[in-house]
Amino acid sequence: MTRKLKVGLIGAHAWADKAHLPGLVAHPGVELVAICDTDRARAEAAAAKFGAGAVYTDYREMLADPTIEMIDVCTPTATHLPLSLAAIGARKHVLSEKPLHTQAAPAFEAAARAKANGVRTKLGFTFRYSPAIRRLKEWVAAGELGEIFHIHGFEQNSQFLDPDFELRQFDVNSPRDRLIPASIVGYGSHLIDLMRWIGGEFDSVVSTMSNYVPERLVRGLEGRQRFQVE
Q1: What CATH number should be reported for the domain holding residue 93?
Q2: In which order are the strands placed within the sheet that holds 70-73?
Q3: Most exposed among 7, 44, 81, 201, judged by the fewest C-beta atoms under 10 Å?
Q4: Residue 228 to residue 223: CA distance in whole angstroms
Q5: Is 58 found in the same domain as 115?
Q6: Domain that residue 84 falls in
Q7: pTM of this prediction?
C-alpha cells in the first residue's frame, strides 16, 4: 500500500470548503490530518466535515507538528506569501492559492528558499488542467501552430457585468478607497499564467487597464460604490 502524504490546511473558509478540502480528501495519495483557522469554530466544523484529526488556530503550532508534510495555504491573498514562507521555513511542501504576491521578485525569492530547503511548491493555477488548454499546449510545443508571436486571452464571468450584482468578497468596514475588485489577482492571474506556461517567458511587458463598470453594489452597503482599477 502506498504511503499517503499528510497534509494540513490553513484557512477554512468557503473556497476551502468548496474546492480545496473536497479535493484533498478525494485524492487517494493524501491524508488530511489538520485544519487551521483563526476562527476555532470554523476550523472545528471543517475538521468534522472532512475528517481531519487536529484543529489549530495558530498556524505556527501546525507547522511545528512533525507529522505534517505539506501545507495547503487557502487564505486571503495578502497572507499567501508570508504563510508559504513560514511553511517553507518549517520544511513543509506547499500548495498555495494564487497569486503568491502582487510582484514577481518575492515569488522568485520564495522559490529559491524552497529549493534550498528541499521542498516542493505549487500555486493553484487550475486552468492548466483543462483538457482544452492541455491540448493547446501540446500543439504549441509540437510546432503545429507555427511560431507564436501573439496570444490573446479573454475570461468572462457574466455576473460581474451587472452593476447591481452584489459583490461579496469585501470587508464592509474597509475604507471605500480600498474596495478594489480582484480582476488581475483573481482571473487575470490565470490568464497570465497560461500565457507563460504555453508561450514561454516574457521578454518585456506593456499594459493598460480600464474599468468598464466603475460603480456597483457591495453586499452590506447602501447604494452603488465607485471602484478603482488594480
Answers
A1: 3.40.50.720
A2: 54-56, 30-36, 5-10, 70-73, 93-96, 121-123
A3: 201
A4: 16
A5: yes
A6: 5-124
A7: 0.86
Distance CA 227, CA 176 (A): 8
1 pLDDT above the threshold of 60: no
Residue matched to cell numbers 496570444 = 151
Query: What's the pLDDT tens digit per position in 167-226?
Result: 766 666 666 655 566 677 778 889 999 999 999 988 888 888 777 888 888 777 778 877
Closest C-alpha to 109, from 85, 144, 136, 143: 85
Binned at pLDDT 50, 70 and 90, residue 34 comes out as: very high
Matching residue, cell 511542501 = 93
Mutual angle of helices 189-199 and 131-141, in 10-degree steps: 30
In the chain, the number of structural domains is 2
Question: Final residue of a domain: which of 124, 154, 174?
Answer: 124
- For the stretch 62-77, pLDDT in tens is 999 999 999 999 998 8
